[in-house]
Specification:
Length: about 250
């Protein structure tokens, strides 16, 4: 009887918890299974999550959407791209206190390593990101121009001191040029940097306006850029028809 009475008081106490406290309790319970995980040198904690290697299931019974991380080759964590069959983002480190992390766009990095990878140029980095993630305004941008040599656009662009040739050569015989130090625009409007005869994509990079040089495009790719995330919303915490719930 004493044990039954104790459980009754526990349930009643949780029933009358203030709503914000109930949400905190629920959120902690949902994330507790995903604590103390590691991939390479990066700690993976709530709200991020990995698949359990033994069971093949998420570490959490109810994981946050879009925060799933793959441990690539057991050496580094990677975030998936929204574009099917397009490489995502290598995570360099995560600051859980500041809700930010540094990543490398693997799709763009791949164009430096493969002759046939120029299709990656046709995607701005921003459209590969899932909704919770935002490119931090402190980043600058590297613009890559894929210019055809047939109409002389590449030759004309090469005379622009702000542009630098790259060693990337595409199967369509177009050449790739780079411009660095472009300020981040939250609206995504970079029309002032368009060039006739060239397709352009925007890749965030680190560095000051004076220190980011287009000729160092490979190092800029490898250094990555800063992403932030919004506090994730979990549908199971606040269903559409919410009523006070007993949390076991």
């Amino acid at each position: 009887m004493a044990m039954a009475g104790w459980w009754f008081l526990f349930f009643v106490g949780v029933w009358w918890l203030p709503l914000p406290l109930m949400l905190v309790v629920a959120e902690e319970q949902q994330g507790e299974d995903c604590s103390d995980q590691k991939c390479g040198n990066v700690n993976i904690s709530h709200p991020f999550w990995l698949y359990d290697k033994d069971t093949g299931r998420p570490c959490s019974s109810d994981p946050y959407q879009d925060f799933d991380v793959a441990c690539t080759n057991n050496s580094y964590p990677s975030l998936r791209s929204t574009i099917p069959f397009n490489k995502g983002f290598k995570i360099l480190n995560i600051s859980y206190e500041e809700r930010s992390f540094y990543v490398v766009d693997l799709g763009k990095l791949n164009i430096l390593q493969s002759f046939n990878s120029c299709l990656a140029l046709f995607y701005n980095t921003s459209i590969k990101l899932n909704r919770p993630f935002t490119i931090a305004p402190v980043n600058l941008n590297l613009i890559l121009y894929n210019c055809t040599e047939k109409n002389g656009a590449a030759a004309a662009a090469s005379r622009d001191r702000a542009l630098a040739p790259t060693r990337v050569r595409c199967p369509n015989e177009w050449v790739v040029l780079a411009r660095a130090g472009v300020p981040h625009d939250t609206t995504g409007n970079y029309s002032n940097y368009a060039r006739k005869g060239c397709a352009a994509v925007v890749v965030p990079v680190l560095g000051s306006s004076s220190g980011a040089s287009a000729s160092n495009y490979e190092q800029l790719f490898n250094d990555g850029f800063l992403l932030t995330w919004d506090t994730p919303f979990h549908p199971s915490i606040l269903p559409r028809k919410f009523t006070r719930q007993i949390i076991f």
